[in-house]
Design goal:
Elements: H1 2-15, H2 36-41, H3 43-58, H4 64-78, H5 90-114, H6 120-131, H7 140-143, H8 145-173, H9 181-200, H10 203-221, H11 226-249, H12 254-258, H13 261-294
Helix pairs in contact: 1-9, 1-10, 3-4, 3-5, 4-5, 4-11, 9-10
Amino acid sequence: VLLGAFVMSQVIKDALEINKRPVMLKLGAGRVLVPLREWRSHWVNILRSSVIGTWIGILPGVGASISAMVAYVTAKNLSRTPEKFGTGHAEGIVASEAANNANVGGALIPLITMGIPGSPIDAILLSALILHNIQPGPLLFITNGEFVWALMAAYLVANVVMFLLMTLSIRWIARVVTVEKAFILPIIFVCCVIGAYALSNRMYDVWVVIAFGVIGFLLDRAKVPLGPFVIGFVLAGIFEAELRSSLQMSDNGILGILERPIAMTFVLVSVVMLVWPFVQSWRQRRSATASETTR
């Protein structure tokens, strides 16, 4: 679903604009690092998206792509200029990347504290720890406390190293946008097909990717955001399974779940996030009407 809605749909969109000239990229000596004043203008967005990425990273099996999409949609709903999103607007890039980076640290929390891997990479890390007779869980802080601190230090060092690598190589990475679409689109299409087929060695998955590519392309043309559409597909199975388990453990059905403070907090936050875009749209229309009346 993710490959089809985001990648294949973009391939179809770019294929229709195959004759469009590539971007002429000019990177000056002072264009690599973002100015400090621009960082300051995005600090609220960075903090909010980092919290979203960390919290979603704690949930096992959700993944960094979901946290990036949730942070992006949240930033768009709270932005004063939501119409600029989807055009390379800085707010959207900052939101998705901050959540994507924070997700890695969040996924380590259930692994270290409960021995539950939060992502495929953490599952590999769990296997490596078990091979070295290190059992993640509550007792890890007592039996191998030095390892926990070493893991945290390695996480910080890895972020610094990645920052330096990206800073030094960004000039060459950015030149990808100058490649002719006629060369890069077939490569992306083949990679999507191979990735979908390799998932379970079935042609059915390939047709699903192509079908959702067409659906994603049509939704994009209709100005329907793809993020919430894909999140619904990805989280639907997890939501149903966890809701069923919660109802089985609850004596009072759905009301028993809502009696718990943490569950009620999540429900209220979800309701606010659903209602807020409508409130924001109503306020914008009201301010526009007031300005026209004043004229």
